[in-house]
Amino acid sequence: MNNLQRCSRCGLPETHETIFFSDSGICSVCQNHDKKVAIDWVSRKKQLDELIERYRGKDEYDCIVPASFGKDSTFTLYYLLTHYPGLRPLVVTFDHNFFRPRHIEQQNRMVKKLGVDWIRASLNWDIQKRVMKESLLRKSDFCWHCHTGIFSYPARVAIDKKIPLVIWGEPSAEYSGYYNYEDIEYVDARRFNRFVNLGISAEDMSGFIGCKERELSLLTYPSSEELARLEVVSVCLGSFIPWNTKKQSELITRELGWVGSQVEGVPPSHNFEKVECLAQGCRDFLRFCKRSYGRTASLISLDLRRGEISKEQAQIIIDKYDGFKPHSLSFLLKLLDMSESELEVIIQNHIITPHTFVPFEMYTTGQELPDEKEWFEYFPK
After folding, report:
1. The domain spanning residue 158 has which CATH number?
2. Residue 341 domain flag
3. Beta carbons of 276 and 99 less than 8 angstroms apart
């Protein structure tokens, strides 16, 4: 299709966010990975120990752990509870209203297995649909409410309940160049405004769709003054221990009975990735349309970076699973009351150059997921 420059090691194209290449053709994400290998992880673990002890036992809860109960947040909870016996976290979930029914069952099972207190919140469904369509039009991404809610809601809970320590899972340094492994990655307002909210605040969005600001309160990040007053410290566990999603997924499967799922556009070897969301295949397809690579290429780049697979093997897998129109696209379009041709026009206006647009009719439709028929039961008729 497009003759894009790609990393000579992991294969990520020049259309990937934050990417740049060395003279030898190695991308910035791979260069960051090389720094990860050189980190003194023993020293980092001691920093984590000190951080935990600084806040442990001071109030009702020792920390907040934001969790969807996908592989990363489930591992984060398991790690904290097993390495710091007696730790009392409050688990906070922003429900983006797109959890797969079987994953909802898994969430309930993991909460009981881990023995933790859990709260969650979701946006008004009618408001959410308007927000999704607006963010799709403006940013070609219907998940703006999800990005913002996942990070703003736990921060708001931290303020409301006066819990100053928040511990996340994977760092963004694992996938992009916004941050690197040489520094501790703080999940703060700067990070939120830098790339999480796509440059749109909740105040902006309320004006765009004509709703009251308070109707988007779950998506409104606390002010810098509020965070500073409580002295909130919000960090990624992956800044303190070496992060390896494959090994961690194997661990929680073995120890907790956590179960992976088939996901559109993801090979069975990676059935631990992005299992939570029924709209994941659609979002990954739109990325493929805009940037010329999909979820499989992104996942396989990690395997290539770690030297677990050859380039030849990687390309076979990518060709087999990337670049298909998801069967669930019609489901999403029905929810949004939008036609495929309307969506196509939107995406055509958001292509990341030098990639060029490929009409939707050129894509082959993928297979239906085993649980797709169950999804309709969770939405208003």
Report:
1. 3.40.50
2. yes
3. yes
Q: Which is it for strands 89-95 and 233-236: parallel, antiparallel or unpaired?
A: unpaired
User: CA 19, CA 51: separation in Å to the nearest integer?
Assistant: 32
pTM equals 0.96
Residue carrying structure tokens 């100053």: 164
What's the CA gap between 197 and 124, in Å, rounded?
A: 19
Contact between residue 140 and residue 346 where contact means Cβ atoms under 8 Å apart: yes
Gap between the Cα atoms of 344 and 175, Å rounded: 27
Amino acid, res. 95:
D
- Identify whether 6 is part of a domain: no
Q: How far apart are CA 78 and CA 80, in angstroms?
A: 6
Whether residue 52 is contained in a domain is answered as: yes
Spatial CB neighbours of 239, under 8 Å, sequence gap ≥ 6:
44, 171, 173, 181, 183, 184, 185
Q: How far apart are CA 298 and CA 174, in angstroms?
A: 11
| pLDDT tens sequence across 110-163 | 999 999 999 999 999 999 999 999 999 999 999 999 999 999 999 999 999 999
Q: Taking each helix axis as running N to C, give the angle between helix 71-83 and helix 245-256, from 0 to 180 degrees, rounded to the nearest 10.
A: 70
Q: Is the dihedral of CA 167, 242, 52, 113 positive or negative?
A: positive
Whether 209 and 301 share a structural domain = no
Residues 166, 49 share a domain: yes
Domain around 205: 41-239
Alpha-carbon gap, residue 285 to 33, rounded angstroms = 26
Q: DSSP strand E in the chain: where? A: 63-66, 89-95, 117-122, 165-168, 233-236
